[in-house]
Structure formats: structure tokens, C-alpha cells
Design goal:
Blueprint: H1 3-18, H2 24-33, H3 54-84, H4 90-106, E1 126-132, E2 141-150, E3 153-163, E4 168-172, H5 179-187, E5 199-202, H6 213-238, H7 245-255, H8 261-271, H9 276-279, H10 288-302, E6 306-310, H11 318-328, E7 334-338, H12 342-348, E8 351-355, E9 361-365, H13 368-403, H14 407-426, E10 453-460, E11 471-478, E12 483-487, H15 494-502, E13 509-514, E14 520-523, H16 537-544, E15 549-551, E16 554-556, H17 560-568, H18 586-599, E17 604-608, H19 616-628, E18 632-636, H20 640-646, E19 649-654, E20 657-660, H21 665-675
Parallel strand pairs: 4-7, 4-8, 5-6, 6-7, 12-18, 12-19, 14-17, 17-18
Antiparallel strand pairs: 1-2, 2-3, 8-9, 10-11, 10-13, 15-16, 19-20
Helix pairs in contact: 1-3, 2-3, 4-6, 6-7, 6-8, 6-10, 8-10, 11-12, 13-14, 16-17
Length: 678
């Protein structure tokens, strides 16, 4: 008997055991007609689908359960047969061992909704409210009178929060406005969300353990399968087989075939930049960035009803960004993503959710580019209506004032005042409040003769061994007019190249030559570590430079107002200049770091992923500052748009070499898509 016949036989036996004898003939007829060929698709066929009776739905539930059990048994049987064959090769044996380990980890563990808790302490001072107005058995979520406050500060103020199934939302707003807090509130279910909708909040990396990346992904999916099966049983017992909540459960369970777990997990990890060797590396031996990729693969495989992603591209190279953009562009359920990358939002989103400075949520159809166009048009029209309304009110008030105390004019004045009262009661048109505009600036630097930084026959490896060389025989120069973006896969050595330029590491062979007067301003993911978070930005900078800062004209001492002016240039304004930095968001701390870089009066900027914590207006301000900067630039970034704004040259780091790319960054993106077959 073949494998398919075995599965069918097992399914039939399970059905007969569970179903009532009086309905056996009817059930068999329903199964034979195959009444729901596409019921669990994206929903198009459901419009014309024949409505099923309660008994038919129960029958279908039992049939699906039996088929899954049969698949599981068949998968276990195949694994046993493969393990018992004498001619099985070593790779198959290794894969069998990995699968066995994954089973062992999942066995006996209690399933739980894959909704990661918020960061410890992040919601301790958070107060939120909202009324669920969508149906509790719906796949959509709608909350009215939705409000969130943290430390007494109102972030969301009596607004409408809405997520519709099958839509992909980009959440945008200023740094510190409350975007990440919103995701944490949803994940912690601090407001009512239907229980049948599972939520996955990707905000932390996978835990370091003895499990490999591949096993870690498979473990989570096995737990998810167990959770769904138990949830199915609970719903059948409490709500019956006609519950709409069962539809998505069946859809997910049908796609969770244990026989394909390893293959699908491998495909996801490969798309996120893992090689075969890295997939079989224990997560405890990985950096935080790679463990974050493992966590992202887990979330994508589970494919929750509501997927919450906070800056998912921060730990990815350009290739992985392209792959993720393509993958999420067809996410079938509900996605809410925070991203500073306009390019990424354009490729992924069907809708934009804008958090305004007044704490309101505004919704726009289309991607980020469509949002910018639509918002601009709406604000122009709103300002026209506002100005006309204000002009009308002014005209009426002038007429009322001209009436004075004349008795014959009093009635006309009262009539005109009633017009104003009715306008106020109906609600006046609000004046458009523009987003704050920051003017980042790096100071003028004195000129230096070229080349200011040169590599001569440079070879390097961390082990010092030739066979481990990341780079070999590098020869190039960087001048004050250089505008270079370094691209290439993770592990090619982009950050290593910057460290060689800085002198933090030394070549195994060759030398890095620097002008003796060269000042370098550098930014990387650890730059915030140099800040004393107990101090305010003003106190920190003042104490760091008690004798003044370096300028093109020598040392210059600054008074209080001048220090505050420097901070203001980078968007650290008002009370923020004087409050302890531990209260600040990462976005504000990043701006303090850039202010610190500017005080060093650099000749060259070496920037490694500078946009990770900046909002879009700040990224544009940074691009403007770089373009006005008279010195040189070497940039490593996953932000295609920023690279397009500031880079004159694209250098590809790969195969132990650094070479120019003949084209712009968008042509390089097309090249990456073609490489991946997208």
C-alpha cells in the first residue's frame, strides 16, 4: 500500500471512530462533493461558496483533524524508515538528528499564543483605554476612543485604531511619538483584542541556546502547531463547528506540514542571509544581530493573524532587505510595521497609518509615496478652508464691532454672533500643524592635501592567517570630496573596513596611511555607549569640552546659549536639552551623538548604519547635512534612499576585494533581485 493510500485509510478510520453513526452517509456525501475547495484561501471564493450546515462543518473539522494526524504518523514513519536504511548518507543522518532534537524540545511544552511580551518595565507607567467595536469573531480589529499615555504624557488621544485583515500597514510618526509603545500595548493585549487572533511582536532577538538557527525556527513552529490544535479543540467544545474563528485555524494548520518544516525554515533563513553552515550554528554562538534574524524567521514561519514588526531591516544587509521586502509584500494576514525606510514601505505597504503630533491616527490608502502625495493635497485644501473660515469670522466680528451700542443695529449683531456660535459648535477647521523641520549641520573643516586616507597593499584577517583573509592587497585612496557607499553581503567585511580606516585594527600586511592632521567623525551601533545617561545633553557636552571645541579657526569656548544652539541644530530642543538622557528615546540619543560628532570638526565621516533610530524627517536632515558638508564620506547603510541621496560612488565589498559598482544604488538593487530570482 502506497503512502497516499495509508494516509487516506487513516483519515477514514479516524472519521468513522469520531462521527455519529446516524450521520455517516451524509458526511461521506459532503466529503465526496468537496464543497470547500478554496475556503481557506485569501477569501475571494468565499463570496460564492455554498453555506454549510452545522453538521457538515463538524464533519469537515473531524476530517481535517484526521488528515493531519495521518500526515504526522506518515512523517514519523518515513523518518523511521530513513533512519533504518543502511545506505543513508551522513547528511541525511545529521538532518534526522536535528529533527529528533526539535521534537524533543517541543514535546511536553505547553503551547501559548505567540505574542511576545513587551520589554520589561516598558509598560509599567502606561495607561491605555479603548472600546472594541468590531465583532469579536471577526478577523478585523476596530477600537474607538483609543488612548495611551506614558509618564502622564498623552501619546494617543481619543482616536480610532483599526486593522483590517489582509492589509499591510506602515506606522509612521516622529521619534518619541509612541509608535513602539503602540506595538507593545497591542502585544500585551492591554486593550481588548479578539482571543482567536494571535499576535506576534518582533522586538527582541532569539534566546541564545544550544539549539541551532534551523532547530530554533522549527521548535517554534512545532509549538505553534500544538497550540492551534488545542485551540481548535477548545473552540469546537465551547462554540461548535460553525464558529468563524475556526476558518483561520484550519488555514494555518493546513500549511503546517511537519514533512516540510526543515525545508521551509531553511528557505526563510537563507533569504535572511544565512549560509548552510550558519543555519547549523548554535544560537549561543551568534551575535545579537544574527539572533534577531532567527527571531524574524520564526515570526515569518508562524505567520500570525497580526504581525507587529519594529524596524525589521535594522539588522539586515541590502540583500536581505530586498528579500524581506519581497516576502512581506504578499503577507496574507495583517501586518503593522514601523520602518524608517521609505523604499521598504513603498514595496510592502497597502495602507499607511500616521500618528500626528496631536496624538491622532490618520489612515491613508496606498504606500508611502501615495501617503506623501495625498497628505500634501489634503493639507493644502485644509489650509484653504481654514484661511477662508478665519477670514469669514474676522469679517463678521468686524461687523459686530461696528454696530456699537446702536439699538437698531443690535439685532443684526446678535444674528451675526449666532452664525459664529454655530460655526464653533459644528467644529472649526483646524490649522495645519507642520512636522518639525530639523537642520542638521556639520561645520566647515580646513582643507588637507590628498590623499587624506590611503590603503597600500592591505590584507587583513582577525586570526592573522592568510587562509582567513577578509581582504587581500587593497589599494585605494579617500579624499575630502569622496562620497562612497560600501555595499555587499553580511560577513564581507564592510564594518571591518571602517575599523581599518579608523585604526582600531591593524592590517596583517600592508599599511593604512593617514594625514597627520586628519580628524574622523564616526558613528556605529555602539556610539550611544559613550553617553553618560545620568546627565542631560547640555551637561554632558559642557563637561566633555571644558576648554572649548575645535574649529577651523582653533579652540572656541561656548557659553550656555551656544551649547544649546548646537544641540538645537540636531533636533534636541527645549526641555529635552536639560533632562537626563536615560529618559530619552534611541532616536533622540542618536541626535545627541551626531551633535557630538559635529563638535569634533571632522574632515571625514565614517557612518555605519546611522539611520537605525532616526525618523524620516531626521534622515532627510542628515542627508542635507552630508551634502552640505565640505569633507569626505564613507557610508554603510541598508537604507537605499539615503544611499541614493548622498553617495556618488558605490563600492562592492566581496571576494576579499573592494571594487566600484558601475551604476547607482537602484541598479544595484535590481541586480540583487535578479540574483535571488525575484
Amino acid at each position: 500500500m502506497g503512502r497516499k493510500e495509508k494516509i487516506a485509510k487513516a483519515a477514514e478510520a479516524a472519521m468513522n471512530a469520531e462521527l455519529d453513526a446516524s450521520t455517516t452517509e451524509r458526511i461521506a456525501d459532503v466529503a465526496a462533493k468537496d464543497v470547500r475547495p478554496a475556503a481557506m484561501g485569501k477569501g475571494e471564493e468565499q463570496l460564492f461558496e455554498k453555506k454549510m450546515s452545522k453538521d457538515e462543518k463538524k464533519a469537515l473539522a473531524a476530517q481535517k483533524k484526521a488528515e493531519r494526524e495521518a500526515k504526522k504518523k506518515a512523517t514519523k514513519g518515513d523518518a523511521s524508515e530513513a533512519g533504518g536504511e543502511d545506505d543513508a548518507d551522513a547528511d541525511d543522518a545529521a538532518e534526522g538528528g536535528a529533527a529528533k532534537g526539535a521534537n524533543g524540545a517541543a514535546k511536553g511544552s505547553e503551547p501559548s499564543a505567540p505574542s511576545a511580551p513587551a520589554a520589561p518595565g516598558a509598560l509599567d507607567t502606561c495607561v491605555c483605554s479603548g472600546v472594541l467595536t468590531s465583532r469579536k469573531d471577526s478577523r478585523d480589529v476596530k477600537l474607538e476612543n483609543f488612548s495611551i499615555s506614558v509618564h502622564g504624557k498623552q501619546l494617543f488621544d481619543d482616536c480610532t485604531f483599526e486593522l483590517n485583515y489582509g492589509r499591510r500597514y506602515g506606522l509612521i510618526g516622529l521619534n518619541g511619538s509612541g509608535k513602539s509603545t503602540l506595538l507593545s500595548v497591542l502585544a500585551a493585549r492591554m486593550v481588548e483584542i479578539p482571543e482567536h487572533l494571535d499576535i506576534w511582536h518582533l522586538h527582541e532577538e532569539a534566546k541564545p541556546s544550544d539549539r541551532t538557527a534551523l532547530e530554533s525556527v522549527i521548535d517554534v513552529v512545532r509549538d505553534e502547531q500544538t497550540r492551534l490544535e488545542k485551540l481548535e479543540e477548545t473552540i469546537l467544545e465551547t462554540q461548535g463547528g460553525d464558529s468563524p474563528a475556526l476558518e483561520e485555524i484550519y488555514e494555518k494548520l493546513e500549511k503546517l506540514d511537519p514533512a516540510t518544516f526543515e525545508k521551509r525554515a531553511g528557505e526563510l533563513l537563507n533569504g535572511l542571509g544565512f549560509t548552510q553552515t550558519q543555519m547549523h550554528k548554535m544560537t549561543k554562538d551568534m551575535s545579537g544581530g544574527w539572533r534577531m534574524r532567527v527571531a524574524l524567521a520564526q515570526a515569518l514561519f508562524v505567520s500570525p493573524s497580526i504581525l507587529l514588526l519594529d524596524e525589521p531591516t535594522n539588522h539586515l544587509d541590502l540583500g536581505a532587505c530586498v528579500w524581506l521586502e519581497n516576502y512581506l509584500s504578499t503577507y496574507p494576514r495583517c501586518l503593522l510595521v514601523i520602518s524608517h525606510s521609505q523604499d521598504f514601505l513603498n514595496g510592502v505597504c497597502t495602507n499607511m497609518m500616521h500618528l500626528t503630533v496631536q496624538g491622532k491616527l490618520q489612515y491613508y490608502g496606498g504606500n508611502y509615496e501615495a501617503f506623501v502625495r495625498t497628505r500634501e493635497e489634503l493639507e493644502i485644501n485644509q489650509m484653504k478652508r481654514y484661511e477662508k473660515e478665519q477670514a469669514d469670522i474676522k469679517h463678521i466680528k468686524e461687523f459686530i464691532a461696528s454696530c456699537g451700542t446702536y439699538a437698531n443695529m443690535r439685532k443684526q449683531a446678535e444674528s451675526k454672533q449666532k452664525i459664529i456660535d454655530k460655526m464653533v459648535e459644528a467644529g472649526l477647521v483646524e490649522k495645519v500643524v507642520p512636522d518639525p523641520v530639523y537642520r542638521f549641520r556639520f561645520p566647515e573643516c580646513d582643507s588637507l592635501p590628498p590623499p587624506v586616507l590611503g590603503f597600500k597593499d592591505v590584507s587583513f584577517s582577525y586570526s592573522g592567517k592568510k587562509e582567513d583573509y577578509l581582504y587581500q592587497n587593497l589599494n585605494f585612496g579617500i579624499d575630502l570630496d569622496s562620497r562612497i557607499a560600501l555595499v555587499g553581503p553580511n560577513g564581507a567585511g564592510k564594518s571591518t573596513l571602517l575599523k581599518l580606516m579608523l585604526g582600531w585594527i591593524t592590517p596583517v600586511e600592508g599599511e593604512v596611511q593617514k594625514n597627520g592632521h586628519l580628524r574622523i567623525g564616526q558613528y556605529n551601533q555602539h556610539s550611544e555607549d559613550q553617553l553618560d545617561l545620568q546627565k542631560s545633553p547640555y551637561e554632558f557636552l559642557r563637561d566633555l569640552y571644558p576648554n572649548g571645541i575645535v574649529t577651523a579657526n582653533g579652540l572656541e569656548r561656548l557659553d550656555v546659549e551656544q551649547w544649546r544652539q548646537k544641540l538645537g541644530q540636531f533636533g534636541v530642543t527645549g526641555e529635552r536639552q536639560l533632562e537626563p538622557m536615560f529618559k530619552m528615546s534611541h532616536g533622540l540619543l542618536t541626535r545627541v551623538v551626531f551633535c557630538l560628532i559635529s563638535l569634533r570638526n571632522p574632515h571625514i565621516l565614517l557612518l555605519d548604519e546611522p539611520t537605525n533610530h532616526l525618523d524620516m524627517s531626521c534622515i532627510d536632515s542628515l542627508a542635507d547635512a552630508i551634502n552640505c558638508f565640505p569633507g569626505g564620506l564613507v557610508l554603510v547603510s541598508h537604507d537605499f534612499r539615503l544611499i541614493g541621496q548622498v553617495a556618488k560612488e558605490i563600492w562592492v565589498c566581496d571576494n576579499k576585494n573592494v571594487g566600484p559598482w558601475k551604476g547607482d544604488i537602484q541598479s544595484y538593487k535590481k541586480h540583487l533581485r535578479k540574483q535571488m530570482g525575484l
